[in-house]
Structures are given as structure tokens and as C-alpha cells.
Amino acid sequence: MTKCNIWRLTLDTNPEDCNLSCTMCEEHSPFSTYIKEKLGGKHRRMPKEWLEPIFQQAQAMGVTEIIPSTMGEPLIYKHFALFVELCYKYGIRMNLTTNGTFPKTTEKTVTEWAKLIVPITTDIKISWNGASSIIAQEVMLGIDFEQTIINVKELVLIRNEHYKVTGHYCRITFQLTFMQNNMHELSDIIKLAAQLDIDRVKGHQLWTHFNEIRHLSFRQNTESIAIWNNFVRQAHETAELHRKPNGQRVLLENIIPLQQQETKEIPENYECPFLNKELWISATGKISPCCAPDELRNTLGDLGNFKVNTITESVESASYQNLLKNYKNIPLCKTCNMRKPI
Q1: Nearest Cα to Cα of residue 223 among 186, 187, 256, 260
Q2: Buried-most residue among 55, 205, 230, 231 (CB within 10 A)?
Q3: How many CB atoms lie within 10 A of CB 269?
């Protein structure tokens, strides 16, 4: 049996709760029928009673980071304050993905949100899909781009003040979805990140959940791959020329050239960044090995459910051990947007 090296968990705390409607989102896109047809209009929310047992098990197995929902807006989760409290109690850092709107559902200001989040967080990833309000608002329907920039400035200010006082540094990241209708602004996004003292720009190729967005994938053909690869070259040149206020480069992650065969399959030597490193627990308790879309995850085997299985039992299951050994032969993994050269 492969030794367990799981160091991070993602809890899909509230995947159906979001204040935006991003066009590429599996659930909240205007093209999606997921909530209506798959869930019958219901919203899945992780029970408050599960949180502490998960943190207890995570601490016992050496987990150092836990992520609240990356599908939906985690700051809307009504038990978010308890999530923060448990991070302190069990000595586990939070890694947060948010859409940058800092919703006022709990009547917190951006400053109050930042002061709550920054001290316990390793990385705040802000969904970012344009350098101009026109493009950003075409992709992330409902966002006020200029207000989001104001929010980010305040977040960075609080982060920098906290670092000066405590020595704890919370990285801030722009998280992108690479699409043909927004990546012509990639270099400008990197320039903006440098100006705003953002540490990292990362992202992934588009999951084409809907026919309406298939034409936006860079993995369509050799022509679209060539366009993406040119954006990659420009991006790295921009990161070299346009530095953060302290002179450091903005870190670029997953902004790498596509290979010609990626219109069909990922290169065989590309590795999964998640297996034996991370696990996902859904709001209904299902334990999964990665962040692939819900329906596709079902092809990866049954890893159990938190209602009846511990996290360790899931890792030690025959399904998970088989996945570790044979994932490169699984159709989903052969085409996965997340695999990359290590």
C-alpha cells in the first residue's frame, strides 16, 4: 500500500451558493441546468456537525491546509466563522478561493473580511478573468470589476500590515480560466497583478461543460493551440518586465505551452497534481480524489462517504490504491486539464 501523503483537503461546503454567474461554471453558468435538473433546485450545504470531526481526522493524518468550497462562494457559507475557529483550534491553515466580491450577506466590510481571513490563510485565490471591465464582466456575470479592484487593494493593504506586525505572509493569487474570449488580456492581467502587489497568476484550461462554450477552448485544434502558446510567451516576457513594488516577479503557474497532441490526450508523462496529496469531501459526504466535474468524478471509483467512512479508510481503500497505480489509463485522466509536467 502506498504511504499516505495527503496534506490538503477541500470541503465543498456550499457549492450551490454564489452571487455571480460565471459563464464557464459547472453550476452557476447561464448555460447550466445542473441545479435545476440534477439537484431539483436544492442547494447542498455541508452540515455544521461534520466540520469538527473532519478537522480532527485531518489533524491526525497530518493535513496542513483545508479549503472551503471552490465551487460557489465560500464566504456565503453560514458556518464560515466556525470554519475559521476550527483552523485556529486544530492548527490547520485555510487556503481560500473567492470571487473577490466579499459579499455583504453577513454585513462585513471588505476590511473586516480581510482581517478575519488573512491571519489564518496561506493563500487567497481570487477568481480573475480579465484586465478590463468589459471582458471581466462578460465572463463573470454580475461582477463589478472596478469595485473588485478596490476590494483587492484593501485586501493587499491588510495583508501587508499583518505581515509587518506578525511575520505571517498570506499569498494572494489571481486565479484564471484560460479561454479564447479572455486570454488576449493575459499580459495585461499580469501587469495589473504586479501593480496591485499580487504574488501569483495561475489558472487552468477550460472545462467545456456546455456546447455553448466549446469554441472557447484552446485545445480545439492546432491553430487555437498556437494562439495559446503565443500568449504564454508574451505572459512570461511581461512577468519579467513588469515587477511587483518590491521588484519581485509575479509567479506564473500553469501558464505553459500546450502540446499538439493535447487536442485529444494529455502527454503520458504529465502527472496528476492531486493524487496522494489532496482529497475532496462534498457537501453530501462523498469523498473524491480531485476537482474534476461531478459527473466525471464518478468514473474514478468509489472512495466512500464521510457519513460512514473515515478519511483514512478512503485513502486505504482498494479503489484509491488502484487509482494511484493506474490513473493514466483512465479516460478522464487521459484528457484532464489539471495534469501537468512536474
Answers
A1: 260
A2: 55
A3: 9
**Which among 41-45, 173-177, 209-213 has the top mean pLDDT?**
173-177
Looking at residue 268, its amino acid is E
Helices (H), the chain: 48-60, 80-90, 110-117, 133-139, 145-166, 186-195, 222-241, 294-297, 311-316, 318-326, 331-334
- How many CB atoms neighbour CB 39 within 10 A? 13
Q: Which three cell numbers stand for residue 201?
A: 497568476
List the grid coordinates of 158: 491588510
Contact 100, 148 (CB under 8 A): yes
C-alpha distances (whole Å) from 106 to each of 70, 109, 338 are 19, 9, 34
For residue 104, what are the contacts with CB-CB under 8 A and spacing of at least 6?
Answer: none
- What DSSP state is assigned to residue 173? E
Q: What is the pTM of this model?
A: 0.94
| Grid cell digits, residue 159 | 495583508
Q: Distance between the two ends of the chain, CA-based, in angstroms?
A: 23
CA–CA distance from 332 to each of 22, 96, 177, 287 (Å)? 24, 26, 19, 17
Residue among 151, 144, 138, 199 at smallest CA distance from 174? 199
322: cell is 488502484
Angle at 96 between CA 174 and CA 296, to 5 degrees: 90
Q: How confident is the model at residue 293 (pLDDT cuts 50, 70, 90)?
A: confident
Residue 184 makes CB contacts below 8 A (sequence gap 6+) with 231
Q: Looking at residue 93, what DSSP letter applies?
A: E
